[in-house]
User: What shape does this take?
Amino acid sequence: MTTYGLATRRQLLAAGVSSSSLSRDYHRVLPQIYSRTEPSWTGRCAAVLLWRSDAVLSHRTAARLYGWLAEPAIIEATVPRARKGRTPSWLVLHRRDLASDAVTRVDDLSVVTEAQALLDCVAIMEPRAAGRLVDHRLAAGMTRDSVRRLVASAPGRSGNARLTEQLRSASTRFASEPERVLDRALIAIGLRLKVNARVGAFIVDFYDEASRVIIEVDGREFHIDGDVFRRDRVRQNILVLAEFRVLRYAAFDVLRDPDSIARQIAHEVRRRRHARR
Assistant: This one.
């Protein structure tokens, strides 16, 4: 048995397990692959690699193994284009040829590299979810250059255009999900503001120096904590008296309709830029 309690039919028969015992006492995970009990999610990943020695775990499965996503119901792996064959409902095989430098090992499992996993996910995920993944990976230290090199290595590959666009609109300096969502909405309409920027003695959520506009996104604690509310009022008064324009938005509203709020901010920023010329 492997680390994950798996064995091939040939191995079990060679060890003296009878065919009847295989049918009665073992769980058939994949053709020719058995375990004594129902395998865990990671055990199924290992079973795929035992079943197809040329398979590489990829897409959202690789993302989960890197700790980026919750455990998906479907396991995804990449096999060479020439590979054929049916799969159970819990397994999706993507048929393509991977470069050797796009493959690594995680927990002794064959997995695509982080950059390749990001490209794979962006190619198949809904755009907002893909954007969230890209932002968090870049914020965590994945470099844009490593991703760009992967894109450039195979022009025309599925996912390249989507990932390139995601890189252009990525937000990386956010301190909260509402900030990330709003920053992306602003970038999408051509407005890049300083994020978590220092203005005098304060750190503000967003700042445009040319217009002296400050944007603050208020979380739930702003509405329920009296001390937070009072400190914010003192801070806002200092900024307003210093001739900054302070716009405040509730996190709930930002998450509900970031595009409308972004347009409102852009209008005020551009109006004040023009007025200050």
About this structure: The radius of gyration is 25 Å. The chain has a mean pLDDT of 93.
